[in-house]
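name: query_chain
kind: protein
chains: 1
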Amino acid sequence: MSSSPSKPLRYGMVLFQGFQALDVFGPLDALNSLSQFIPELELYLIAETLDPVSTLIPASITTSPTDKSPSPFAQSLVPTHTFSSPPPVPLDVLIVPGGWGTRDQAIASACAAYIEQVYTQKTLRYLLTVCTGSLLVASAPGIVGKGKDGGGRLLRMTTNKRALSLWEERLATLAPGARELVRTRVEWVKKARWVVDDRAAGAGAEQSLAPVWSASGVSAGIDMVFAFMAHVYGEETSKKVADYIEYERHTDPSWDPYADIYGLA
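structure:
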């Protein structure tokens, strides 16, 4: 199994306090295993500073998934680069995880600004989001595009089904003009394991933007990254890596029992 210059090799992972561990480690473990077959793969961990980044829910968030005080049980990752001092080479793929940190306005704003900067440089080949990472992408006007009113079309994404209501909370943190701009330019797919918007059907400048892959909640990022792997490296490669880590893939992007559980279907 060999790599090709046309295949994406340079991966970046956005980190922020309160990231969801599996949103990050699920895709990364699959990519770690892929690198055994394609050793040219490069990984960059990118955060606001070089300080270790914890899964600990930020102090600004006063409740946890159980509506109790956040637990101190956490893990940390050490970034390799920062938003202001990014990797020295253009990224092929940028992965944006979700997590409780996306509820913190300062964290969300800093991440969205960096993601938008990378995306609008138009050297990025793919943008991947997991869980509520899609809310960060959706709040960046430079990513969502013109929308129907501007002669383009809506950006199609999905997200964690339990957290879909967070979109309105995220909108409330934006300036009124930006709020209305992004509100009308995203189509949320409520029943999907993952969604691919290749931007190819867009109008004008949207045709030169990188495809956006978005996964539903947490574990869905693993299925999405294997589907992405099949798309860019071939199904044989994706299957070999999945077998290597003994993972049984969901290969149907419309498989989504959680849309029913949370009353969205």
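note: The radius of gyration is 17 Å.
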